[in-house]
Amino acid sequence: MKVTGEYQQVWESFWKDAPDEVGGALWDVEPALASALHLPHFEGYFDPGLPLVDLGCGNGTQTRFLAGRYDRVVGADLSREAVARARRADPHGAAGYEVLDAVDREAMRRLHAETGDANVYMRGVLHQCPPQDRAELVAGIAELTGVRGRVFALELAEAAKGVLGALAAAPTGPSLKLRAIFSHGIAPGEVADAAVPGYFSDAGLDILAQGEQPLLTVEFDAAGERVAVPSKWLVAGRKG
User: Fold this and answer.
1) DSSP letters for 109-136
2) Dihedrals φ, ψ of 173, to 5°?
3) Distance (Å, rounded) from C-alpha 92 to C-alpha 95?
4) Which end of the chain is more exposed for a tag (fewer CB within 10 A), N or C?
5) CB 208, CB 46: distance < 8 Å
6) How far is CA 94 from CA 65, 67, 77, 151, in A?
7) pTM (predicted TM-score)
8) Directed axis angle between helix 6-17 and helix 80-88, to 10°?
């Protein structure tokens, strides 16, 4: 199954309109506020000798950080515009970048044939995937991790709805970054907290670790505090 057509065009449109800089999207924070905070959760589970795929890499902000810590890193995204931005921001080629529809099982198998078993890093990808395609997405990730790879996934918690709702209802109205999300029709879908591990278990992956870690954004509230969206993380892979 492939995620194509309107859904893909939504992301193409979003990235074409977003400022071409770190912080151009609501979630596009510096690595010190994202992947660097996540690293302690997964580095003990990831085999450093395996390639790492940053799935849903966007403009590659986190990909470039991860490339400094793993020998081979590939940023993959559904949007051609996002991948083009990631390549421009990485002129020395610290990482590789590919346009990839992760719901396309054949595409995931082709990537696995290229990389072998791989580790996967992803933030919020499951929530942005259409509900009917989420099981297929995780099944494709299971193909990519194979026997030795692991996946780290950070996904919005149920409590995120209240935080995002309050941000949208601010007296001054939604911020430019939040309006950009709504105007392009990419508001995240809701997934029950208990359902997220189930997608990975159903794909044959064991839950090796899990916990809570807010997804930090580029926005600040009226008190000057950075907006943090409640989120949960897990590490999954095949035991043994």
Assistant:
1) HHHHHHH-S-EEEEESHHHHS-GGGHHH
2) 90, 170
3) 9
4) C
5) no
6) 9, 6, 17, 21
7) 0.94
8) 30
If we measure between CA atoms, which residue out of 223, 55, 47, 224 comes closest to residue 138?
55
**Local structure of residue 37 (DSSP, 8 states):** H
Question: Are 97 and 75 contacting, i.e. CB atoms less than 8 angstroms apart?
Answer: yes
Tokens 């609501």 — which residue? 26
Question: Partners of 120 in the beta sheet?
Answer: 53, 151
For residue 207, what are the β-bridge partners?
236
Tokens for 153? 């996934």
Counting every residue, how long is the chain?
240
Burial class of residue 209 in the structure, from the number of CB atoms within 10 Å of its CB (0-12 exposed, 13-18 middle, 19+ buried): middle
- Backbone phi and psi for residue 128, each to the nearest 5 degrees, phi listed first: -85, -15
Largest CA distance in the chain: 53
In a structure prediction context, what are the per-residue pLDDT tens digits for the chain, which is 240 residues long? 344 567 788 889 989 888 877 778 889 999 999 999 999 999 999 999 999 999 999 999 999 999 999 999 999 999 999 999 999 999 999 999 999 999 999 999 999 999 999 999 999 999 988 889 999 999 999 999 999 999 999 999 999 888 877 777 777 767 777 777 777 777 566 788 999 999 999 999 999 999 999 999 998 888 889 999 999 999 999 996
CA distance 101 to 161: 27
